[in-house]
Amino acid sequence: MERIERHACFGGWQDVYRHESKVLGCDMTVGVYFPPQAEEGPCPVLYWLSGLTCNEQNFITKAGAQRYAAEHGLILVAPDTSPRGDDVADDEAYDLGKGAGFYVNATREPWSRHYRMYDYIVEELPEWVESDPAASDRRSISGHSMGGHGALAIALKNPGRYRSVSAFSPIVAPTQVPWGEKAFSAYLGDDREAWKQYDTVELVKNAREKLPLLIDQGEDDNFLAEQLRPELLREACDAAKHPIELRMRPGYDHSYYFIASFIGEHIAHHARALKG
Ligand SMILES: N[C@@H](CCC(=O)N[C@@H](CSC=O)C(=O)NCC(=O)O)C(=O)O
Question: Which sites are catalytic (predicted)?
Answer without folding.
Answer: 145 (charge relay system), 221 (charge relay system), 254 (charge relay system)
